[in-house]
Specification:
One of its GO terms (biological process) is tetrahydrobiopterin biosynthetic process. The chain has about 90 residues and is mainly alpha-helical. About 40% of the residues lie in helices and about 10% in strands. A hairpin with a 5-residue loop joins strand 1 and strand 2. The chain is globular.
Amino acid sequence: MILNLTNLKDCMEKVVMDKLDHRNIDKEVEHFTSTPSTTENLAVYIFEELKKHMSHPKLLYEVKVHETDKNVMYFRGEYDENVSSDF
């Protein structure tokens, strides 16, 4: 077994659901008091938080966040903090 799904579910509950579900993210989640709560930033946040709490963080390949049925953000752990998001 590569990863016990019960452990993954527990990690998802602790890291994602308990911290983000039914919350005013901009006011109640410290990270987002200074970072815009865009779908892109949510995906990065979830990825990084999952890595911190997983027993084998190298197994985390991708986080996918659905904003709507047609608006989906994928994050695979690589980004450049120096790139401007102003287009």
